[in-house]
Amino acid sequence: MKIGSGLMAAAVLLVLAVPPAFARSRHRASLDSQEMRITNSPTTEPIVAPPVTVPESSVYTTPNPRVVAALPPIPTAADNQAASTTPGIDGAEPKGKTAASVDGMQTAAVTPPAAAKDVVGPPDPRMRTPGAMLFDETRDDSALDPNNWAVSVFKKRHELIVYYKGRLFKKYDAVFGRNLDLGAKLWAQDRRTPEGVYSIIEKYRSARFRWFLRLNYPNLVDRVRYETMRVNGVVPVYSDGTSPLVGSAIGIHGTDVPILNAGHINWTTGCISVENKDIDDLDRLLPVGTVVIIKP
């Protein structure tokens, strides 16, 4: 009895559950068929793009084609032969370009000048000293002020160095008094070049030395030193009882023995000698009143 009741309940549940599941399967099949129909069915309506509207105020012009300059013709072997045999100005060979061949094609190759003398143009700024460049840029009369110039002389180095407004202007070779003792000048005719701080007090032409830039030797320091040595018996006394004086007429001048200047051989009686072309520069550049410092 109990078993029969259980079978009846199971049958009822099966009958109630079958219709909804069957309905869901039919609905899914319907959707699948619709998707297949929508996806696979071709459209019969043509695809048309929307019309492009152009404002009436707009003006459209066709751009001009880009013009490319024609390349020069490639020189032939005959042209190269004619160019190599054609003389330049005044019969000189042309410089700057030579013909070169790469894989049978003639090209023009720029070649550097053969020597520095062929270079045309301003000097290399790196070869100019700071003082020289500053001097070239001077547009007022400050170059006439002796306070803007200074000279340093080094006897052992055979150098005379010029400064402009505190900057190196130029170095010059120089020679000095022919005394083997390179010490400071003590008295007249000792053939030494003085050492100390001096200034140019006048400039004038010299028949022998081209220009003479006279210094204010002896200055106060030189006079005091000389008097001290004379009192202490250091200054020599000649046979006639006289002694040499403190000296004078010391300056910067040119040369009448340029070979000695070129060899850095001291030959003066106490002055500073430079090349003649250099004394021309110093006379033109250095105003009266320029300070000259002479060092060992």
Q: Layout of SSEs?
A:
Layout: H1 2-40, H2 77-85, E1 97-102, E2 105-110, H3 130-137, E3 149-154, E4 159-164, E5 167-173, E6 196-206, E7 210-215, H4 220-231, E8 251-253, H5 258-262, E9 272-273, H6 276-285, E10 291-295
Parallel strand pairs: 3-10, 8-9
Antiparallel strand pairs: 1-2, 3-4, 4-5, 6-7, 6-10, 7-8
Characterize the structure shown.
This protein has 6 helices and 10 strands. It has helices at 2-40, 77-85, 130-137, 220-231, 258-262, 276-285; strands at 97-102, 105-110, 149-154, 159-164, 167-173, 196-206, 210-215, 251-253, 272-273, 291-295. The protein is an alpha+beta fold and 296 residues long. It has a domain at 125-138 and 147-295: L,D-transpeptidase catalytic domain-like, CATH 2.40.440.10. The strands form 2 sheets. An 8-stranded mixed sheet has the order 5-4-3-10-6-7-8-9. Strands 1-2 form a two-stranded antiparallel ribbon.
